[in-house]
Automatic annotation (TrEMBL):
InterPro entries named among the record's database cross-references: NAD(P)-bd_dom_sf, SDR_fam
Protein name: SDR family NAD(P)-dependent oxidoreductase
Similarity remark: Belongs to the short-chain dehydrogenases/reductases (SDR) family.
Species lineage: Bacteria, Pseudomonadati, Bacteroidota, Flavobacteriia, Flavobacteriales
Pfam family, one: adh_short
Top-rank taxon, per record: Bacteria
Length: 241
């Protein structure tokens, strides 16, 4: 199993859920920009599940030597890489903030995804799970830079799913709504619309086993976003969303 963004609470919860459910992995490759944090998780799954893993440092904002990944083979890739950034007006016009949001959520992530997707294609098997966001379903004034990057990632996953279908590789897009994670700490989230990492992992694992194409972590978000997508533009642009 390959995990991109393995410091994510959702990614770690998914790994644990998969192991609890009896999924067998020769090795779990934990890609991370924070090696020390991820090594603690690696020790945890070794002690709790006797699961062998390898922590691999990967910083999307730096150059990547793909040759070091040549020996990595897997039938499951879980991508939880993401960066919310600063969504205020001050952050909106901060080009460094904007560039980082675009790079981490899409521009510099897609080449890494493509590298492993090609490996899956050559083996004609496997599943790729990508965490996108409901923010990508329609641009809203509160977070449209982040939302635009996630919209691009959603479109990428959709196209990749279409391309890899007859190559026997399944691609699943996950659209979490509000998540109680470090990334959203301090934000005023509605508890009825917010999932914990454990809840998210359980939902994603079920969707993975059913080979769903698109999955919302909480089903209510599918309804909410359907309504938001269908609000006429002349009304929508007046709303404070």
């Amino acid at each position: 199993m390959i995990v991109l963004g393995s410091t994510s609470e959702v990614a770690q919860a998914f790994v644990e859920k998969a192991l609890q459910e009896g999924e067998k992995f020769e090795k779990i490759y934990l890609f991370t920009s924070s090696k020390e944090t991820t090594e603690r998780f690696a020790r945890h799954i070794d002690v709790k599940f006797l699961q062998q893993s390898e922590v691999i440092e990967l910083d999307l904002m730096k150059g990547i030597d793909y040759n070091q990944f040549d020996d990595i083979n897997s039938n499951l890739l879980f991508c939880a890489t993401g960066y919310l950034g600063e969504g205020t007006e001050e952050g909106l016009y901060d080009n460094k903030n904007t560039q980082r949001i675009i790079d981490i959520n899409y521009a510099k992530l897609v080449p890494v995804m493509n590298y492993f997707a090609q490996k899956f294609e050559s083996r004609r098997s496997g599943t790729i799970i990508g965490l996108s966001s409901v923010a990508g379903d329609r641009g809203r004034q509160s977070n449209f830079i982040y939302g635009s990057a996630k919209a691009a990632f959603t479109a990428y996953l959709s196209g990749l799913r279409n391309y890899l279908f007859d190559k026997k590789v399944h691609v699943m897009t996950v659209k979490p709504g509000f998540m109680a994670t470090k990334m959203t700490e301090g934000l005023p989230l509605n508890p009825k619309l917010t999932a914990t990492p454990k809840q998210a992992a359980e939902s994603i694992f079920k969707a993975y086993k059913k080979q769903k194409n698109v999955a919302y972590v909480l089903p209510v978000w599918g309804i909410i976003m359907m309504i938001i997508r269908n609000i006429p533009e002349f009304i929508f642009k007046k709303l404070k969303l």
